[in-house]
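During the no-cost extension, the postdoctoral fellow (Dr. R.K.) reprocessed legacy sequence entries with the updated structure-token encoder. One reprocessed record is reproduced below for audit purposes.
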Amino acid sequence: MKKNIKRVLVVGNFNVLHPGHLRLLRFAKERASHLTVAVVSDTQAGNAAYVPENLRLEGVLSNTLVDDAFILNSSIRQLISEMQPDFLVKGKEYENLYNEEVEELKKYGGQLLFSSGEIVYASSDLIRKEFLSKDSSITTRPEKYLKRHEISTIRILELIKNFSALNVCVIGDLIIDEYVACEALGMSQEDPTLVVSPIDSARFIGGAGIVAAHASCMGSDVSFISIVGDDEIGRFGEKELKKAKVKTSLYVDPTRPTTFKKRYRSNGKSLLRVSYLHQTAISSELQDKVYESALKIMGKVDLLIFSDFNYGCLPQRLVTRLIELAKKHNVFVAADSQSSSQYGDISRYRGMDLITPTEREARISTRNQEDGLVVLAEILKKNSNAKNILLKLGSQGVLIHSSPENIWVTDQIEALNKMALDVAGAGDSLLVASALAIAVGANIWEAAYIGSLAASIQVGRVGNTPIRQNELIERV
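Re-encoded structure tokens follow.
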């Protein structure tokens, strides 16, 4: 005989999920196995609703503690009568007030509980801080660089708007990132270990997936080809990519999980990263499926982007075949091959129009730990036969290395955002924005500037959120 599922109900406006709300939801979830949240409608909430009801509901549903949520248009008493939850949870501040719900709960044996230990935050203050304050994180505009290369604002805006004319194919490793927000409790007395308590978590598409989502949200028509495991993480990725209007061809490999990375953070700092992944190459059968998918669309593609994290999605045999296919159709090709340890070689992507390695990845590829950056970039350019290189230097910006008219030249753009919140994903946004720019006719100097703008937006927020075309335009 099945045991009855215990249900708990929470009702509120939830203008923004501040820490007080999160503690209340966690308290409620600990009381029963199924947590339902009723978000009071705009009509019912009146002036207490600072944010539209659909956005408030979306915020609640994004919390992993919540099993289901909906907009409440009736009275709380009517809802309790219809739903008959085992528990109704309210904030501690209501404990000594009159609570009309008690009468309805008594009719069937339900209980009213009050959460303890809540820290009170003003939702309106948080909204003002998080959503209404203007971004002032870009402290410098590279005026000398723009003047040196005669780059005008009108020209940059024109290039960004032209992203909408592109058909793009992205191939590479899909990664799902989860950020776990923690409350620091202190140091363990048994051993020197940091002790934290998870408060909330949020998931984002990452890896080649976010490259595809960036390209789509920047205006392009995007197809994405990758490998996933037979798991919930892979299904989450597919769902999020569809939200970003990316057309997906995701092939299931039951022998490997979808790459999943968890980051534990507290007070704006990352404490620990845990990765669930396999690095073995995909089978020949799956390689053929990836190639066949690319073959079907390559005649209509303007830009092919390889986003390789060296987790086995892009073995050399497949890479070589895809490059030959792209060149046959005169497709612009860009690549990024990230090295998680000492493994990875960006130079295996030969003949690229653009590559975007970090300094460390360039040194691993060339086995060169001694030469200066310009010499390093030139050696990598010769080894890879790449036309353009954007060498990512972290907080120092990006070094541009190109060879117009067979005369190699270099320049540098400093990092445009001096107040980075989360550097994860900066390289992906640089790759896609600069590649899109060149594909619509930008020179390497214009492309590097647009890529740097995209990176400055990405590092200004926590987690990979697709950059939209209007965000780039506003930043310009």
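The CA atoms of residues 143 and 151 lie 10 Å apart. Confidence is low (pLDDT under 50) at residues 117-134. The remaining legacy entries will be reprocessed before the final report is submitted.
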